[in-house]
UniProtKB/TrEMBL annotation:
Residues 99-482 form the At1g61320/AtMIF1 LRR domain. It comes from the Eukaryota. InterPro entries: At1g61320/At1g61330-like, F-box-like_dom_sf, LRR_At1g61320_AtMIF1, LRR_dom_sf. Pfam families: LRR_At1g61320_AtMIF1 (PF23622). Coiled coil: none annotated. Gene3D superfamilies: Ribonuclease Inhibitor. This is At1g61320/AtMIF1 LRR domain-containing protein. Residues 23-33 have a biased composition (Polar residues). The lineage of its organism: Eukaryota, Viridiplantae, Streptophyta, Embryophyta, Tracheophyta. Residues 1-33 are annotated as: Disordered.
Amino acid sequence: MASTTTGKRKGSTCGEQGGVDGDSQSGKATRSSIPDLPEDILFRIHSLLPMREAARTACISPTFFQSWRCHSNLLFTKDTIGLKRGACGENFDDKIDRILRNHSGCLKTFNIDYYGTRGFSGTSYFDRWLQIALKPGIEELTLVLSETKRKYNFPCSLLSAGVRNSLRYLRLQFCALHPTVELGPLRSLKSLYLWRVSITWNELECLIFNSLTLELLDLISCPEIECLKLPCALQRLSALSVLACERLKVIESKAPNLSGLYLCGNWLDFSLVETLPIKELELQQTNLICDARAKLPSLMPNIETLAIQSSREVVDAPMLPTKFLHLKHLTITVRSGAIVSRAYDYFSLVSFLDASPSLETLILDVTQRRMVHKSIFADSQLRHMPEHHHGHLKNVKISGFNSAKCVVELTCYILKNAVSLECLTLDTIYGSRCDDQGEDNWCTPMTDGILMEIPWALLAIKTHIENKVPPTVHLTVLEPCSKCHANGLERVLSQS
């Protein structure tokens, strides 16, 4: 079918009925090349094409043009409608408007990514587009707008009973949303994403209490929400994500099946988070580790997967009697920046191992942009903890491995006490690696401070780690990438 596109302008999208000549030679050629299939099957094939390809196909086939006018999945981005880089918002508006004015079917998916286009022509376009899109049968609605001084007020009045019965996915960005108690139930809504949306807790509460089929709730930078109280009526809610909601202080959940929680920001005292059933927890916050070790075992005793990302730690992890009895997968990132107020004692993370008798996987990131710890080569006398055999820990990875004495001590403790250990990976850098997958694939860039430490890290492994590795453990040492980091290493080493 690609051979029949000759003569059409690259990037064109058929938004008007006059965009296709049904009697043209290209149309006849296409009809002779399309299999003699029932119309409903051809329409189904056409509906499975990505939007831009579906539009191009409609330009050369009367059969597919008819299908295009009732195409059920519309995704509007600069790429899908063929706008050139730097095109202004008015051109974006104009193309979408022409396509929608000639649309005659029922939409299942309606996605507008207006973010990043230059210019803003007011809200009248958005109102008109949503009036066309929000009809019974719509399943997914995404409205991603650009940041402006005055946010677009999403018209809740368009959520008719028919729309509320079919809508399964709703994502809004840079909008204002003000639902009231008169909204009515959204009987099919499963996923709700509100990113940089102006909405109060009372308004969000109206939406939540009308969305009892909700399975996922994602809130990012919603500054007007001060509390979040999830009722027990949310029987299906399994995942909650809250990022950078500065005024939010309390999260209370009685949702019985909420098992996944992701919290990011310095605005929340997670000791005020009442979510006992949680099994998967991810936290990002400064100076977090001590509180997590002290409070989480009692607050969330059912945790099986825990990920903690922290910086600027001022208190080491304490040894406590409380346990994470069900914890199987633990990730801790304590990544220090260029300015460090104190050298964090990574050896104190033994406290988490001691508290996790069921732990199977441990991933640590101890990356330092500059070395502030005492080196193992300055003091090779290792500290020792009482022996505590870990019978389930099989896989351990330490990223940003360096020659800090406390890092070497922690590694030696794991080798001595993890009797079931199978794999130990020590990575001298952090982040993603290119894995030699093509010319445009690169490893995460490293600062000079990290690159300068790498030879010492490798020497520490050779002199203090390798001789302690049991024969049953497979040790993998990952050095800097010869493609991505060679020049940087050569530069910093020549300066040292």
